[in-house]
Design goal:
Elements: H1 3-30, H2 35-53, E1 56-61, E2 74-78, H3 85-93, E3 98-102, H4 109-117, E4 121-123, H5 128-141, E5 146-149, H6 170-174, E6 178-185, H7 187-191, E7 201-207, E8 211-212, H8 220-234
Parallel strand pairs: 1-7, 2-5, 2-6, 3-4, 3-5
Antiparallel strand pairs: 6-7, 6-8
């Protein structure tokens, strides 16, 4: 995929987001009881359209591990290959997903609008002293939402797995969440790898048995134990 083709695809995805803003605004203003359903529907449509625009051939494995719908918070802990990871996870799970993101993303107007609507959690990495307070408040307000955390902390530049950071587990532990470990393979070829040739791009998402944190404490040892389990799942495929 050459750079021009990539930019056209990104512009197309951006246009889909842009044209849905006034529709969502009208839903929130005149049909508030249905506004959340409308947002969720548009989010799922956007995710599906994005996978089609980037010509991804998606294979979702282990979805049976995600069929539970408990009355509690759910955290998806996935490796991070590209900006396509979120729409791919949304399309696989068929549920709205917020995610933990760096504060810099709030400076992108269009993206900022949707991220706030979806309940994303923003972390300012330059103010580590405030991170615990932000995560504690986010955990308290999660309710029955599903959030995505990328424990590696950044996108892999090579496609190889990076070691997950223990601090990334804190939100899940504070929320006493049910964790869905997931490994994504192939999305880097859709967006990050400019040498990718024409044709369908195979993408595989593997979901592993869930990890119930209801009885775990909020400690450094628990953080390390959780990311070790998630990393072991990732490297098992």
């Amino acid at each position: 995929m050459n750079r021009m083709s990539l930019m056209v695809k990104i512009s197309h995805v951006g246009w889909i987001m842009l044209r849905n803003i006034p529709l969502q605004f009208l839903a929130e203003k005149f049909n508030k009881s249905n506004a959340l359903h409308s947002l969720q529907k548009r989010y799922l449509q956007w995710a599906k359209a994005t996978t089609e625009i980037f010509n991804l051939k998606l294979e979702c494995v282990g979805l049976e591990h995600c069929n539970t719908a408990p009355d509690r918070a759910i955290v998806v802990m996935s490796n991070h290959q590209s900006q396509l990871d979120i729409p791919v996870l949304v399309h696989c799970l068929q549920r709205p997903l917020g995610f933990v993101a760096k504060i810099e993303l709030t400076k992108i107007p269009l993206l900022n609008h949707w991220m706030h609507r979806l309940g994303c959690v923003f972390i300012d990495r330059s103010k580590r002293s405030q991170a615990h307070e932000i995560l504690t408040e986010a955990a308290r307000s999660m309710g029955k939402r599903t959030l995505v955390i990328f424990p590696e902390g950044t996108r892999s530049k090579t496609g190889f797995l990076l070691p997950p950071k223990p601090g990334s587990a804190r939100l899940a532990l504070l929320a006493k969440a049910l964790v869905f470990p997931a490994r994504i393979e192939g999305t880097r070829n859709g967006a990050e790898n400019s040498s990718q040739t024409k044709g369908e791009i195979p993408v595989r998402v593997t979901f592993f048995p869930s990890i119930d944190l209801s009885d775990w404490d909020d400690s450094r040892a628990s953080c390390e134990k959780l990311v070790t389990q998630v990393d072991a799942y990732w490297r098992s495929v």
